Amino acid sequence: MKRKQVKNSKIYAKTQAVKARISEYAELPYDVLLNVPKITITGDIQVAVENHQGIIEYTQNRIRINTIIGVVAIDGEEMNIKNILAEEIIVLGSISRVEVVK
Amino acid sequence: MNMVRIFNFLYGYYVVTMQGRKYEKVLNLMHVNGVYVWDIKYHQDGTIVMKIMRKHIDQFEKLCTRFGVAYKIKSEKGMPVFINRLFRRKGFVIGAFIFISGLFVLSNMVLRIEYPTEYSMRKEELTVQLKEAGFSVGMFKKAVDYEQVKKNFLVSNPNYTYMNITTNGITAKIDLYDKTNPQDIYDYNEPADIVAKCDGTIRQITVAVGTPVVEAGQQVTAGQMLIEGRELIKIAGRESDIYRRAEGKVMASIVCEIDNIPIFMYEPNETCTLEEEKTLKISSFSYKLKKISKIEEKFEYRINEKPFKILDFVLPISIETRQLYDRADAVEKSESKIAGDVIEYIRQNDFINPNAVIEDIMIEQTGQYEDTGIYSVVLTVIDNIGEVVVK
Question: What confidence score (pLDDT) does residue A34 get?
Fold first, then answer.
């Protein structure tokens, strides 16, 4: 079982590497082909996370969002979630730190 | 995003709170199942407040129940809520409907008649004439046959040659053109005399052209010459007479008799109390606000109509007050009062020239019909009796 998982992760890594190359050569955005999150920070008031995989934690001072590359942790004060859409989460508040935890 | 908000408002939404350990899971599952939530806020007490569409509330409740998250619907907002609330207030809806209908009806009516300039006829008289022609305040604009009104008006008022009615909103503007008769052109060299048009006694004679043939104090009969157009002039020391158009004024006292003048014989005494009957008039409809019992035992004293006004704008709504008094309180009018009423009647009905001066009046009652006396009058008036007759 464990061997199968390792094999799958290797295939996945290879696929991602191929996709990354195609993106590079075709000059396509990485987030479209690789499905990696696109994090847009507007000043210190808004963070938009595209291609997310759901919320892991939500408190007033910390929001953790799951993505394919790991967990995006947003720290700040009085943080609200403006929208949860299929592709995007918009976080509003006084943002102090955005971190990708692998 | 504003469009999304507008749609949310139109479809309606709930403001809900949830509290529990697994609310993140509920949030994730909601977004996986296509339940749209927005404005998610975390409160100090550990509750999460958010907005959710009306149609998704069942799914939300199921998810919360499944994961042991306590939830509460805080409030309901949006257009459907507003409409529901509105229809629960029946009085308000009916009132609003009546108000809008009233506004619609009033805006389709002519509520004001405007005359841009002064015409030979007074505005009040014009309004009466227009009413007779089929156009008055309070009529629906579309119900008026403007061509027929113009035709009727011009037929009954030959002093006007052209008429136009333009409606702008609730105001109707009436344009009229007075008929201008060509000025009388006299040939002053054409011989003409002034003769008496009726019998009378000369009081004063003023001659501009011609020779007077009568003098003050003289009695004249109809057709008798008063001023002759012949004049005696001196040309180069020789006297000769020429015939011209006589000009002058002959004031004479005329005696005229007028029969069958109906005058109401009674008036209220000083101690009587007047009762008022009030009628609300809206255009051509009327409704009695205050009725008086045993009206057949009462006499009418005065009628007063008071229209409603908004600033200078007169509405087609008025209150008519009719003052009445008991027959028991009625006293016969004095002779002077009857004389005053008779003179008013004579003047109103154009029995005498409006410029004529009444010198003497003799009144005699010749009959009576119910409460109205029938009078005969012998009047002595001073008036111009001269009439130009071309030879």
Answer: 67
